[in-house]
Design brief:
With 662 residues, the chain is mostly beta strands. It has eleven helices and 37 strands. The strands form nine sheets. Strands 21, 24, 25, 26, 27 and 28 form a six-stranded antiparallel sheet that branches. Strand 2 and strand 3 form a beta hairpin. The longest helix is centred in the first third of the chain and has 26 residues, at 103-128. The radius of gyration is 36 Å and the shape is elongated. The model is unreliable at 215-240, 313-318, 405-411 and 525-531 (pLDDT under 50).
Amino acid sequence: LKPSMCLSAHESCFVNSLADIKVGRLYAGYIKEVKEFGAIVCIGSFRLGGLVQRHQVSSKFVEKPSDELSAGQSVRVLVGDVDEEKQRFSGDLRPSAASAADAPLLAREAVALRTLLEQREALATTSLGSKAAKKRFSLLAPGSVLDAVVTEVKNFGLLLSLPVREGLTAVCLKENMPESFRTQAGASIKCAVLDFDPESGIADVSLQPELLGVASTSSSVASGGQKRKKKNSDDSQAQPAVLHVGLQISVLPALQKQTYSVLWCKDPPCVVFAPPFGSKSWAEPRPTTVQSVPDADSCGEAARVVVLCPQGSREKKEGKVKVPRILRPEEELQVGSPIKMRIRAIHGLQVFCTAPVGLRGHVHASQFLDLGAVGSGGESPLEGMRKTGVIEARVLRMQQRAAGVEDTESHGGKVWHLELTCRPKLMEPQDASEYESEVVRWSSLKPGRLIAAAVLSVQKNMLWFEVAPGIKGRVSMLDASAVQSVVRSLAENFHVGQVFQTRVLRTVSSQKELDLSLLPEVAENGGKKNKGKPQVILAKLQKVEEKVGGKGMVASFRLPERKRATAHITELFDVWAKQPLKRLKVGTIYEVVLLRDWNEDAPGLEGRAEVSLRPSLVHGQKESEEEKRPLSTKDLMVGQKVSGYVINSGPAGVFVGLSRSL
């Protein structure tokens, strides 16, 4: 009763004897029996069995064939050889590119899929009723664009709810989302239906922008059955693609089911279905031909466009790139020499590689990028890097060490270890001194030096960076960014593996301490730059005095670069608040303006800067006459009304702070 076998019999392709089998040809078949070593397949009569070894079940490693195959499952078989003595043949179920001689097989596969979909529609109509089935499936026809709400973000993609029908769940796999797409739970988005399983009530959807641009209720319309546009409709709105039998289109993979493959096309944008016997995935669009389109009255699984199994070029396996043998490293290599090595592993922030004979090398993540100003970067060079392959680099440093147990190739019991770089500017020939200067040592980490560093870990109040293997430094939250929202949520804006250009603030090599910054140096001379405008920086409030005293300094702050600062009571707010100190909260990050830097001499404030939190200075807001702070007696006149805060009081009188200097 299998449609594929019935069609084979109808076209006289049903195999009844070994003499009918041609080696190297593809055949429609089915699984007769699943064994531990593989499977027994039939391509016609059940009396003729073909042996499929376990490694030929799939293009990926299969531990248990029963996890991939089941008895009765339809398959496509590539015949390897025929053993007339044992009355059996060998088969291969791995995806194989069809030749021109296999064209009739491709057509039979597509017709068999169409038959299967029609049979499923008949069952759904019987169980649900014709009207109910049409209503349910019309809303979820492949290619339909629906509103959805993200319910959960998973490692494999998204879980969504579809308001179009209560209790309806949708799944969007990562491969069906644009690479740059980011979202969160609760977000409202649009999605395009790929497939719907009426038994589970789960729909598979896509977020590809080409599919979302089709404002239609169906993925395609048969030739001559295009829906009429509504009057006064927007002509710029995308219309359903008109597909017809024989049309050539190029498709990409979306989903792989056991009985069919779901594919999608960019031009015209549509969702189509194909037999499941081709490659499971491919990067570039592959050509195929429309084999059948649904009738106007079709609904459910029968209302789908079926195409031939896509036949691109056979998936090319990258040839194993040869790594040159280096027999005498001490003679053939020197600092700056180009070298080609095979990647052995990627661990932490390093790529470990090898080369014959007895060569070991490592490249730190910071040695992959050319960076500019401090704070630039943010790329993750190790993300997505293949753990097998060949890397081209240049030598920064060479050391010979004792060989380990695993080092079977060595020079007199010793192995050469190479520190490498892949920075584009260093891949061009340079003087040896240029390469030597790129080697990071504790002694070379002087304050002010710009150096590439990779994020090692992200904590609540700081970032840990690694500038070289074994040399790590910290970046305080205030030195991570000049943007308040970023500083408040470091974990949302930084991740392990990112590489940035950092600036050295302080080193204590004896204690292995290194402080770094992602910000330019804070300007001195009162922070004045950019045509006299004060420089706005971030500061963390560390302490608020319980009582106002002395010169009216009431708040202590931590600044970038491990600097300290104080604020006068008159520089907290523009308005004259009754209890200004109660409005401050220790631990809060504030935007402040430098009024006096830490190098200016001020009695009692040695080594500390002076800052202001006033919005008129920080944000340039206009202040009223009453809010202006007089900085000298020249700004005052007898009889003028003034405002201020009580600094001190005693027998001699009440001392009022009118400003930080008066």
